[in-house]
Amino acid sequence: MKNNTIYTIGILLFGVFVITISCSGDDGLEESRIDTSTPELSEMDIWIRENLTTPYNIAVTYTFDDNELDINRYLTPPKEEEVKPFLDAFKKVMIGPFEETSGSDFVKMYFPKLLVLVGSYNYNNDGTRRLGVAEGGKKVMLYELNYFTERTADAATSAESRARFARYFHTIEHEFGHILQQTKEYDKEKFGAITPSYRSTWNNLDDQEALDLGYISPYSAKNMDEDFVEILATMLTTSAEEFEEILDSPGNQAARDALRAKLAIIVDYYKESWNIDLYEMQEIITEKRLSYFEE
Amino acid sequence: MNIYRYMLLCLLLGICSCDNTDDSEIFDVPADERMTEQLLSYKNELTTAGDGWKTTFFPDTTHTGGWSFVMKFDQQNGVQMIGDVLENPEVENGVYGLLSSQGPVLSFKSYLPITELSNPSSSHPQARYGSNDFVFIGEQENGDITLKSKRNNSELILKKASEEDWEDIKLNMETEAAFIGSPTSSVYRFFTIGNGTDSLVYEVVYDKYYRQMTLTNADEAVVQSIDRGVAFTKDSLLMHSPVNYQGSAIGQMFYEEDEDRFIGVNGDVTAKLYYSSIPYNLGNDVADIHLTKNMFSYRDDTLEDTPYTSPNFVNIYNNINEKMTGGRILWRIEIQFMTEDEGRVRYRYRVGETNYSGYHYFTYHVEDNKMVLTENIDEDEFPDGWSGTNSAVISALEDLDTLLFSPEGIFVKKLSETYTYTNVVYTFTSAKDPSVRFPTYSVLNTF
Question: Is the domain of B235 the same as that of B151?
Answer without folding.
Answer: no
